[in-house]
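Recap quiz, item 2
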Amino acid sequence: MKLSTVWLDGLWDRNPGLIQLLGLCPLLAVSNTLENAIGLGLATLFVLVLSNASISLIRTLVDDSIRLPVFVLVIAALTTCAELLVQALDYQLYQSLGIFLPLIVTNCLILGRAEALAKRETVFMSTIDGLAQGLGFFLVLVTLGALREWMSSTLILAALPPGAFIALGLLVALHQWIQGKLKQKPTERSVDQTNRRVRTTGDIS
Amino acid sequence: MTVRLTLFGLIASLFVGLVYVMTKPLIIEAKEQARQEQLYLLAAPLLANGRIASPVQRELPDDAPASLEHPLSITPIVTDSEQTGVVLPITALKGYSGPIELLLALDQQQRIVGIRAIEHRETPGLGDRIETRKSDWILAFNGLKYDDLAPKDWAVKNDGGQFDSFTGATITPRAVVDALNETLAYLAQHPVILEANP
């Protein structure tokens, strides 16, 4: 696995908020103000990087029978630490995030990365993946938060729950549109793919 | 593998415990500061030419309601010559998920100047409407005195009283109203508890 692919996947190609659509509950609920979005984005990034790193670190010590309990244990412990730290450093933020801070533990993005990558990649690779995916999530959350806070002074709908869905839908559409534009150009990649398809008919592996 | 799982459990608990011990003093300080800010906002109408005096500890008789802590820590609001009011903590024990901690500000006639939820674990979107940032519900008590209403009216509408409850969450407002009711009823008979210099 290439390092540049990991970065590109997290930030754009397979962005958790725009393509994988993981962790939508906090994404939609906490994006009403920029401050909340930054707070929850950073807390999620913190948990994701550390959970990816520690799960990768212990990957040879756990077999399939205890894999899930151990992963959940690691994520829950890290989330509790994140909650304590936010409470200690910014009590007001802690109060306005409320239940969504402890709910990071159920963010499927985190268990998803542990299962998809951290359980078999090196600690370095997993940490980079956590950073890339976490930053991708953070950027979408912050964009949504900034957009909704800015819009809400003129359009009250932006501050309400339906506004979150509509704004995220627009962001996803924008992402798809840019992707479409990028793909229209004949790139080396697409030539590569047609070639390979012809070659692999005889040899499936 | 069971042994390993147990070991991982122990390591994780140890780690969380360590962070807990490290952050505890900071958290206590942050909570105290948030409480002071709330106290100041609550007492604001009483502060016209007065100031917040330092808290006084009060021993309570055994028949005091459970909503008052023992000993009770009251914060008198005073001018140079007289007391203008008092702020005291009360606890609604019958919250939906554990106790609800409130701050109550009263003037010298024991009229409610304000009441705020300081700490609670009520359901987001339902019970948390006792917070002023979510709903104006708790402002309905402002300006009321125990004698203003018949005893049966100090209850939520579902119980035949005059205060609204929330759709889907009756327990939370009921806990707050009931705690307030028993506190005010008791204080009306024992006003000396709230005197800075009895």
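Residues 3-199 of chain A form one domain.
The radius of gyration of chain A is 19 Å.
End of item.
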